[in-house]
């Protein structure tokens, strides 16, 4: 159940507690390196659980559990192709954000902090 969102950059009104809670929930889900890798992989094309497990280096049951959480959150969806279940991105905005962040960090961009790493800030 994907909701359409409009980003307004000119508004100075603070977001509601509900919106902040939802955003924190999405960021919390993506705080797992495995789920982040799954989202990044699916942002480049659909895959079944076996292909994802091979690509992200996780055990099949663990990847299935991560997919179930991402699916419940509305970030991914699935469809059947015979006996095979194929997963794909259901929220392209989040997928775009993941791709942007990974590309930015992969490009050697330093983040604030003494060593430039977010984890040094207690994240």
Describe the structure in your own words.
There is one protein chain. With 123 residues, the chain is mainly α. It has 5 helices and 3 strands. It has helices spanning 17-30, 33-42, 49-56, 60-72, 92-106, and strands at 47-48, 76-81, 84-89. The protein has a 3-stranded antiparallel beta sheet. α2 (33-42) packs across α4. The longest helix is centred in the C-terminal third of the chain and has 15 residues, at 92-106. The chain is globular and about 50 Å long. The two termini are 30 Å apart. The mean pLDDT is 85.
Give the SSE layout.
Layout: H1 17-30, H2 33-42, E1 47-48, H3 49-56, H4 60-72, E2 76-81, E3 84-89, H5 92-106
Antiparallel strand pairs: 1-3, 2-3
Helix pairs in contact: 2-4, 2-5, 3-4
**Main sheet specs:** 3 strands, antiparallel
Point out poorly predicted stretches. none
Give the helix proportion (percent range): 40-55%
Strand order of the largest sheet: 1-3-2
Secondary-structure-derived class: mainly alpha
Q: What is the H/E order?
A: HHEHHEEH
Count of DSSP strands: 3
Mean pLDDT, rounded to whole units? 85
Q: Counting H and I runs of at least 4 residues, what is the number of helices?
A: 5
Principal-axes geometry comes out as: globular
Tell me what portion of residues adopts beta-strand conformation: 5-15%
> Distance N terminus to C terminus?
30 Å
Cα-based radius of gyration, to the nearest Å:
16 Å
Which short descriptors sum up this protein?
123 residues, three-stranded antiparallel beta sheet, 49% helix, globular, mainly alpha
């Amino acid at each position: 159940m994907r909701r359409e969102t409009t980003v307004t950059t000119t508004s100075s009104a603070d977001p509601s507690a509900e919106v902040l809670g939802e955003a924190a929930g999405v960021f919390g889900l993506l705080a797992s390196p495995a789920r982040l890798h799954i989202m990044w992989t699916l942002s480049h094309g659909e895959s079944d659980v076996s292909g994802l497990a091979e690509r992200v280096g996780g055990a099949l049951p663990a990847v299935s559990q991560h997919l179930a959480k991402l699916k419940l959150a509305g970030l991914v969806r699935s469809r059947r192709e015979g006996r095979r279940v194929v997963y794909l991105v259901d929220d392209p905005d989040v997928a775009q954000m993941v791709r942007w962040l990974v590309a930015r960090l992969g490009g050697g961009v330093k983040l604030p902090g003494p060593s430039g790493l977010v984890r040094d800030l207690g994240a």
